[in-house]
């Protein structure tokens, strides 16, 4: 366990009845990152976040936040800000009352900051939050989570149910807030597009397993799309590349591959293209849904 | 936590107070009129004269007629009195069942459990405060209904009897706390408000029924009184006894009448009450029957002086159940994951 | 002060889009040496992007000698892109126009020419990409 780790999970597993919602999950999120947790619905994103915030107890392995078990007590919990899916709040409470409530439930609580954020967004603090728009309610939930001055902020699909404008505004607030602090952020979404510009760390979950996790730039640098004639595919690869996803016509092969290290020379007739985040996620999700035997895509920590 | 619980449930409390005020608006006038009638009709004095002794002389006033007139006049209200038996279960379903279940249903437990308060403290504060409110409501209800129903209960079958016993003294308070604990417990386990409410009603009725009709009569062994059939005294039916059985036993200890009373005077029957002879043939004139020579009436009963013993035993049972349920609920809450 | 705008469909990395915008603004005179760049927080919030991306762009500009940080905080432009390159650009442009004319008369379509330029640029700059 190193000091620059915000969240570390090792061999984490959680079971509901006979079904594993999460299994063999290992990853390390360094401090100061904004991480996207992506995967289809039911992949285990919520389970992972709930384990990280101590709402769930793991059946296997462990999750540690800044080196501590989140279920150990309120000290560990004090470091974590959490916004659950659909931003559950006491709907008949006003935003001002929720801020007051937070002050009573937490030792560290920056009520002034929360009020400032809400007034900057023109959110009526006297009205019951159940009567606010979805976007405003999400902003209230975010302001409450930030008022804890958390070192790790976990957001479960915070923008999934919002309209595009509200999504953008939410991400604006979040990015602005993160710039002012050194808060590490882990936010989940089943849509990568929402997070592509916001995150610099990526975790791909599929069918209860981590398919890929690592620094975004690093991941992009280590993957390419190779395009070339199908007949020379075997010789062109020659055991150098790990193929993540392949699509073939009768003449052409298109392969998304992981590089062994530096980009090696390519065989005659082959060319390499950079990948973008969307290609990468798609490739790993497809690979994950096709077979679980694929080697884990996790890259060694830098 | 205190503020949160107050803020979350203040509306509910307000509605409850309004409901109690409405109930008081009905109970106070009718109660006053019953109390006045009870005294003015002479029934109070008659029953007082009958005293709490187990037997009374033959010519103590005719309380039966007065009592009949009184209970016929207030027949409707006596029915209302029975309805009060259900009051605790309402507290249980409206305060107990939604307490935790609603947090689960709306997902707010995810908000409140990820703040800087442990689940244990959250649960203890919440349950404690709601418990206190339930206690206050229960005391108010027990005291109010106890006063209101006193005239109805002091004549007729007595304060120890089924259902009459249940709306007096301290047991209504214990029932209320039990109902709330049951609601909380079921809310924690079902995590859904409506099922928790439904099962609370069913569970409350089931437990109350079992305790009422199966367990209660065994709290203490019954007292007994023997009254020779030739005696001119009568068993005092205004003493407030909870009568288990009346029977007529021969001098040799043989049961002559399993369920009834017999009084003889000079070889003739002056009073014979049987309800179902149990296949026993009483004969044309039992008083002249040799087998009835020296026979006596045997009454098994719980005397009115045991009223508070029974109240405390029953309250103890329900409070223990309530504590057990809350304990299970807290253990479950800490384990939920 | 410069206001950054992102091209959602561009394949160019976000940080590089910011760098290019500053350079473009310098070229056309929208900003001058001595001007301050917006605070990292403001850019991150306005564009809803990772503040580290903004930091990366500003670092790139500093490495190219176009900006410097000042003790009071803030990033200021110091370099300029006008100057030696402008003259040679005109000359290179003339050569390119001539080349394009030859390519056209050789029968290449617009798409052919674009593809040729792209692949040539790619292979020429391949060794230096990503630095």
UniProtKB/TrEMBL annotation, chain A:
<keyword id="KW-0067">ATP-binding</keyword>
<protein>
    <submittedName>
        <fullName>ABC transporter ATP-binding protein</fullName>
    </submittedName>
</protein>
<keyword id="KW-0547">Nucleotide-binding</keyword>
<dbReference type="GO" id="GO:0005524">
    <property type="term" value="F:ATP binding"/>
</dbReference>
<dbReference type="InterPro" id="IPR051782">
    <property type="entry name" value="ABC_Transporter_VariousFunc"/>
</dbReference>
<dbReference type="InterPro" id="IPR003439">
    <property type="entry name" value="ABC_transporter-like_ATP-bd"/>
</dbReference>
<dbReference type="InterPro" id="IPR027417">
    <property type="entry name" value="P-loop_NTPase"/>
</dbReference>
<dbReference type="InterPro" id="IPR003593">
    <property type="entry name" value="AAA+_ATPase"/>
</dbReference>
<dbReference type="GO" id="GO:0016887">
    <property type="term" value="F:ATP hydrolysis activity"/>
</dbReference>
<feature type="domain" description="ABC transporter">
    <location>
        <begin position="7"/>
        <end position="232"/>
    </location>
</feature>
<keyword id="KW-0813">Transport</keyword>
<dbReference type="Pfam" id="PF00005">
    <property type="entry name" value="ABC_tran"/>
</dbReference>
TrEMBL record, chain B:
<dbReference type="GO" id="GO:0140359">
    <property type="term" value="F:ABC-type transporter activity"/>
</dbReference>
<dbReference type="GO" id="GO:0005886">
    <property type="term" value="C:plasma membrane"/>
</dbReference>
<feature type="transmembrane region" description="Helical">
    <location>
        <begin position="196"/>
        <end position="215"/>
    </location>
</feature>
<dbReference type="Pfam" id="PF12679">
    <property type="entry name" value="ABC2_membrane_2"/>
</dbReference>
<keyword id="KW-0472">Membrane</keyword>
<feature type="transmembrane region" description="Helical">
    <location>
        <begin position="169"/>
        <end position="189"/>
    </location>
</feature>
<feature type="transmembrane region" description="Helical">
    <location>
        <begin position="77"/>
        <end position="101"/>
    </location>
</feature>
<feature type="transmembrane region" description="Helical">
    <location>
        <begin position="310"/>
        <end position="331"/>
    </location>
</feature>
<feature type="transmembrane region" description="Helical">
    <location>
        <begin position="12"/>
        <end position="32"/>
    </location>
</feature>
<feature type="transmembrane region" description="Helical">
    <location>
        <begin position="122"/>
        <end position="149"/>
    </location>
</feature>
<keyword id="KW-0812">Transmembrane</keyword>
<protein>
    <submittedName>
        <fullName>ABC transporter permease subunit</fullName>
    </submittedName>
</protein>
<keyword id="KW-1133">Transmembrane helix</keyword>
